[in-house]
Structure formats: structure tokens, C-alpha cells
Design goal:
5 strands; about 50% helix; five-stranded mixed sheet; 5 helices; 60s Ribosomal Protein L30, Chain: A; alpha/beta
């Protein structure tokens, strides 16, 4: 049973609200340099300082890449072990738009894995992040350890 199946109409509104909160989190963390993008970059960051990571996003558009699925499994296990909230994100194109779309030099970003980290100032209290974290906690109570959020097109 997924989170959507337990709450009916109220749940659809909540999913949309959480998707909007996720966009706010990413938009506010990006200018502060609190975003790590890419599977390998995320793995390195998790290895160096897992206590600094507050959210892990795994994005896929139903790809059948076995190597990517193995990376996702390992990252999920690491995040669960270190109490890092994880979200599966649908609509990779929208996620790339939110994050700026391309790396310096014009090459496209690998948005399959995105980490949100705490800024150096521990004063960063983001209500949108609290909403996303609460959603993740509620989903875990329903044994849905990696809930799926679909980012709406704009």
C-alpha cells in the first residue's frame, strides 16, 4: 500500500503540497551551495560527511539501467543506515530545470541522485524542508521507505 492509497483525495493534495515544498527546498538550497548532483558525486559526499546530508533524491524516468539500479540500492541502504530521508522523484526533466539544467561548459547534469546538505550556518531552518521530512517520516510509518513524488510540469 502506498501513501496515496491510504488517504484518498486528501492524499493527492498532500502529495502536491510536498512536491511544491520539495521545489522550494531545492530552490533555496541551490544558491547556498547546498546541493550535490550526480550519482558519483553523491556517493563521494555521503562517504565524506553523511551527517551533513539532510535529504537524498533518487530520480528516474522508468529506466532499465541495471548499473544505475545497483547504485540506487547502495545509496538507499547507506541513507537508511545514516537516518537520511530519501525520496524517489518522477519527472527528471523538471528536476533538471529546477537545478539549472546544465553544468558549466554546457553538458547536461546527471540528476539521477541529488543530495541536499546543511549550509555551514546551522541557522538554516527551512519550513519546506520540515514538511518534506515529515512526509518521509509519515511514509516510513506506512512501511514505504522510499516514497515517490512526481514533480509537476510548469
Amino acid at each position: 500500500m502506498t501513501f496515496e492509497e491510504t488517504g484518498g483525495e486528501n492524499s493527492v493534495e498532500r502529495m502536491e503540497s510536498v512536491a511544491q515544498a520539495l521545489e522550494e527546498v531545492l530552490s533555496s538550497a541551490l544558491p547556498q551551495g547546498c546541493i550535490t548532483v550526480g550519482v558519483y558525486e553523491a556517493a563521494k559526499s555521503l562517504n565524506v560527511d553523511p551527517d551533513n546530508v539532510v535529504l537524498c533524491l533518487l530520480a528516474t524516468d522508468d529506466e532499465e539501467d541495471v548499473a544505475l539500479q545497483i547504485h540506487f540500492t547502495l545509496i538507499q541502504a547507506f541513507c537508511c543506515e545514516n537516518d537520511i530521508n530519501i525520496l524517489r522523484v518522477g519527472n527528471m526533466r523538471r528536476l533538471a530545470e529546477i537545478l539549472g539544467g546544465v553544468k558549466p561548459g554546457g553538458e547536461p547534469m546527471d540528476v539521477h541522485c541529488v543530495l541536499v546538505t546543511n549550509p555551514q550556518s546551522a541557522l538554516w531552518k527551512n519550513p519546506a524542508l520540515s514538511k518534506v521530512n515529515r512526509f518521509c517520516r509519515d511514509c516510513r510509518c506506512l512501511d514505504q521507505w522510499v516514497p515517490l513524488i512526481n514533480l509537476p510540469d510548469r
